[in-house]
Amino acid sequence: MKLPRISIALLALAGAYPAVAQQYPAKPIRIIVPYPPGGVGDLVGRSMGARLGEALNQNVLVDNRPGGDTINGSEILARSPADGYTLLVASSAHSINPSLHKKLSFDAARDFAPVSLLAQYPYLIVAHPSIPAKSIKELVALAKANPGKLTYGTSSSAAQLAGGLLMHLAGVNMIHVPYKGSGPALIDLVGGHVGLTVTSPAGPLPFVRNGRLRVLAVTSRARSELLPNVSTVIEAGYTDYDVTSWLGMLAPAGVPREVLARLNAELVRILKLPEVKEQFSREAIQPAGGPPEEFANFLKKEATLWAKAVQVTGLKAE
Asked: Which of 181, 212, 236 corresponds to the end of one domain?
């Protein structure tokens, strides 16, 4: 029986996917990191990139594209060919941006293919020693006695929301100071130009260990296994408070399933390596992993949770 031309074309297309996967990667891969060098997103992106290059026997280039609360990097990925040669280290900002920015040039759910969740970590609420508070309870009391005088710096919308949620639950007002990167925020905190910061653990830990900064709490529901001596905000009495940030790998929507599966398998394997676990542990980061479908469901839940946080805090894009 003679097949119609369209059927022949569809059969040829279906047979092309395994061939694509076998040939992949035939050229260098680019991983977009939508943050400046030095932060936790950059650290995880470079760690994954170096080992992914070894596993695939191909060059993997890390391309830092900071700005726009990760929107710049997301726009680049959304416009990239769906061939698996351009990837993005996404973060909690990816789930927040649709609620915070009403005119995005991409659809955060439709235009990207989840590859794997890479890591999760709580934020730290860190104070300069000049702030006479050694706990969240003492900080709230200080903020109530000095309304609108305490300052806290952040370099991401997720960290700003973490601070905003605390203010909302505690009924206090502090001044937010936005930064374009965690490095500049940390420098100003160490220098005493801002009193507090809400940030990932990687940057401030060395300064906490030498006494130049003080950790007041972690933002997660439970204490971090990697920071067991640091109390949670919940322990201060704010039982609805729970903020955990994450990093994950995205590809453009439409990447061949076989290519997506290959990338996922390699990333999950890399995240289980002892040296990667040790590297992440030093920065109080918890390796993740899992199949693309699991990451897709995770992203849906995160979008809902962060949308509620934006609504409750009344956060506006700065």
From this structure: 236
